[in-house]
Structures are given as C-alpha cells and as structure tokens.
C-alpha cells in the first residue's frame, strides 16, 4: 500500500483537530470529509481535491477508501463503525468506543466477521506525561504505587452541535465523555480494579461531576471528572505517589520528586510501537493507526477489548454510584 486513503467523518471541534493533524502525515491522503452541516463544511474546506459529503453512506459508496476516521457525537459511534467495517474499511473512532457494553459487543462481533482493523482514539495514552508515568510505574524504580489522583475539570460544554454533549443520553454524561479519559488510562496500566465506588451528580443547573475510587491490591486510584457552570479554565492533572517518591503533572509541568522533567529530552521511541518525533498526541494516535493499516500490523497499543473494558468500567461506576442531588 503506497498511501492510505482516508475519509473523515465529523468536522466539529474534535474533528477539526484530526483534520489539522492529517496535514502533517505524509503517508496518507485525505480523500473525503463528511459532515451533516454541509454549508459549514464547504466554508471550512477550500481544498478542491477533498470531496465533501453530508451523508456517510453516499461517501462510502462513491469513494475508494482504506480508513474511516469517525469523529462524531458519541451516540452515533456504534452504528457508523459497524457500517464502515461491513464496507470492508479499517476504522479509527473517537472515544468513547460506544455508550454501552452491548454496542461494544456488536462492534467486536462485526470485527470477527470482517477481519478489519479498529482502534478507539484514547488520546491520553499517547500524551507524553502519561507515557512517562506509565513507564515509571512499570519499571518500579520508585517502588509500588500507593495512591493516584487523576482530575479533569472544565466549564460546562455549551457549544456542541444541537447541544448533544449536555444530553446525558446522547453523550453518556461527564463520565463517558470526560472522565473516561482517565479511567481508560488507569485500567490500561493497572487492569480492572478489585473494588470500586463512586459519587455522581447528574447534570443539573449546568453542573455535574463523577468522582470514582478504583481499589487495587496495593493502591487506591481516584478519577474525578467535572463540568461546572463557571468560567473555569480546562484542567487535566495527576498526582501519583509511590513507595519512594511521586510524579505530578500540573499547570503544564511534569514533576518527579521535586524535579521538573523536560519531555523534549525523553526518548521518542516509546512503547507504542513506532518512532514518532512529533509531540502532538492527536497526530501520534493517527500516525500509529495509519502505520498499522499501511504495514498490516496488529493494533495492540489500544485493543478493541481494552476500549470495551473502559466502557464497561465507566458504566459500572455510573450505574453503581451514590447519587448526589
């Protein structure tokens, strides 16, 4: 395969991030883009060589593609992924994989039939501070992890198309839209917890949060995801305490035992399987999947089972939570 031919579905906020990332990837060709807001799409995309659609099925019928990149509202993921797999295409899909375990199973069953490649775009796994943290945990130079705190806090998202993000039935709420970033990272490193408990405030007066405790044999890990009715700058941070030290990411700085870590000096040949010199995590995840398709490699950094497990765990935390009114 010379160049991987890609069709992008969805050009909202996250979709635009993917679109910009493709501009830096040379071993693929962005052939077409689909978005229901066709007039906005035509205003955004001035490249005449990129074909524009407002209907996914029409795009699949008219274009010769290798990969579909789905960056649409979460409630659309399952049916779109399955349609594309059944068309014989490899699929990259934004997180969450789906909103339900049942839909995850539908995708897994379709993958068995089609034998195509699939990956959920859990971008946090590609972010340098988290790659660094994962390596430190695995190498155990600071001993075992005793406690970890992961937080992801922002203002309420009022900007989504038809306000789908504030509809908990369509987005899965703050748990499946926001906190799943950290829940996925934690379960990818530590596995499924022995016990869990959580507190959940459903969206009310434009504020909502979920605070989860994941209990392992030797460690307690907490994940907090919040949307607040306040003009709060977006924050994503962690503090992990080991037997012999700590690692903290806060205010854009990564600290290990009181020393700031310069990630530009870290070895870019990480354990994700390919040598990537770019620090942009969205570009990294796309490059990784394109490389898997082009060179027929297994998608083993983010497997379909791992993504499904993250949905299962997040759903459990939501369903079994103590509800705060």
Count the strands? 15
- Looking at the overall shape, the CATH architecture of the largest domain is 2-Layer Sandwich
Structural class: alpha/beta
| SSE string, helices as H and strands as E | EHEHEHEHEHEHEHHEEEEEEEHHE
| The CATH class of the largest domain | Alpha Beta
Q: Summarize the main sheet.
A: 9 strands, mixed
How many individual helices? Answer: 10
* Strand order in the sheet with the most strands: 14-13-12-11-7-10-9-8-15
Number of domains: 2
Helix % is 25-40%
Gross morphology is globular
> What proportion of the residues form beta strands (DSSP E)?
25-35%
Which regions are unreliable across 5 or more consecutive residues at pLDDT < 50? 267-278
Task: Kindly report the average pLDDT value.
Answer: 95
Radius of gyration: 20 Å
Under CATH, the homologous superfamily of the largest domain reads Dihydrodipicolinate Reductase, domain 2
What CATH calls the topology of the largest domain is Dihydrodipicolinate Reductase, domain 2
Distance between the termini: 55 Å
């Amino acid at each position: 395969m010379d160049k991987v031919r890609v069709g992008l579905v969805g050009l909202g906020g996250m979709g635009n991030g993917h679109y910009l990332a493709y501009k830096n990837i040379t071993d693929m060709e962005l052939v077409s883009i689909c978005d229901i807001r066709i007039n906005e799409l035509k205003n955004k995309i001035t490249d005449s060589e990129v074909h524009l659609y407002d209907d996914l099925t029409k795009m699949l019928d008219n274009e010769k593609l290798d990969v579909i990149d789905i960056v649409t509202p979460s409630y659309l993921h399952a049916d779109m992924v399955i349609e594309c797999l059944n068309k014989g295409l490899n699929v990259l899909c934004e997180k969450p994989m789906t909103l339900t375990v049942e839909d995850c199973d539908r995708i897994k069953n379709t993958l068995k039939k089609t034998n195509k490649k699939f990956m959920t775009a859990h971008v946090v796994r590609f972010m340098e501070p988290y790659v660094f943290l994962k390596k430190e945990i695995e190498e155990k130079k600071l001993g075992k992890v005793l406690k970890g705190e992961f937080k992801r806090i922002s203002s309420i998202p009022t900007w989504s198309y038809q306000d789908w993000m504030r509809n908990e039935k369509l987005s899965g709420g703050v748990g499946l839209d926001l906190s799943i970033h950290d829940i996925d990272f934690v379960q990818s490193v530590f596995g499924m917890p022995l016990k869990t408990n959580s507190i959940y405030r459903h969206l009310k007066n434009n504020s909502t949060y979920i605070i989860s405790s994941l209990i392992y044999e030797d460690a307690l890990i907490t994940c907090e995801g919040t949307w607040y009715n306040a003009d709060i700058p977006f924050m994503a941070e962690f503090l992990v305490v080991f037997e012999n030290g700590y690692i903290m990411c806060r205010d854009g700085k990564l600290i290990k035992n009181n020393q700031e870590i310069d990630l530009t000096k870290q070895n870019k040949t990480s354990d994700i399987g390919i040598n990537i010199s770019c620090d942009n995590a969205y570009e990294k995840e796309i490059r990784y999947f394109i490389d898997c398709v082009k060179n027929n490699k297994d998608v083993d950094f983010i497997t379909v089972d791992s993504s499904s497990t993250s949905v299962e765990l997040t759903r459990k935390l939501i369903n079994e939570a103590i509800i705060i009114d």
